[in-house]
Design brief:
Elements: E1 4-8, H1 14-26, E2 31-35, H2 42-51, E3 59-64, H3 70-77, E4 82-86, H4 95-102, E5 111-112, H5 118-130, H6 134-161
The chain binds 5-O-phosphono-beta-D-ribofuranose.
Length: 166
């Protein structure tokens, strides 16, 4: 049973959505991954969103680009947290996706991450699940510790070799 459902509007979103999947995989969180277009196949979309709760899903990560209605429509139907990932677009640089996802009407929240913010979406889903899972919380603390140590190492190396050789 998948705790997280990752859904994207098109397979062209996969390079970004894969980053969310990689984080969940790394933290041992079960997930499903679907390509479902709210615009191109509305009936399939409604079936997906309406059955997510009974499938055991606790958080949906939804990514879409341009007139990006997929995350908002997931939030309209699914009663638990929805995280939205706006895709970068060539015409408007992803601002179209960002505004479509972040400007939800009062009552229907979507936790929107940065344009192409796949990894943070995965981490945010993990943090939501960690509020009731102490072993997952411990893994997230280790993740932060590793990140901190990586920066300390880089600073140490910079001071050892100097900026010209870095
Ligand atoms: C959205 O339209 C998708 O999420 C994608 O980001 C964008 C373009 O889709 P394709 O034309 O590449 O399939 O629905």
């Amino acid at each position: 049973m998948a705790q997280v459902s990752i859904v994207m509007g098109s397979d062209s979103d996969m390079p970004v959505m894969k980053k969310a999947a990689d984080i969940l995989d790394q933290l041992g969180i079960s997930f499903e991954m679907r390509i479902i277009s709210a615009h191109r196949e509305p009936d399939e979309f409604f079936e997906y969103a309406k059955t997510a709760e009974e499938r055991g899903v606790k958080v949906i990560i939804a990514g879409a680009g341009m007139a990006a209605h997929l995350p908002g429509m997931c939030a309209a139907i699914f009663p638990m947290p929805v995280i939205g990932i706006p895709m970068h677009t060539t015409s408007l640089g992803g601002r179209d996706s960002l505004y479509s996802i972040v400007q939800m009407p009062s009552g229907i929240p979507v936790a929107t991450v940065a344009i192409n913010g796949g990894a943070n979406a995965g981490l945010l889903a993990a943090k939501i699940l960690a509020t009731s899972d102490s072993s997952l919380l411990a893994k997230l603390k280790d993740y932060s510790e590793d990140m901190k140590n990586a920066v300390i190492e880089k600073d140490k190396r910079l001071n050892e070799v100097g900026y010209k050789n870095y």
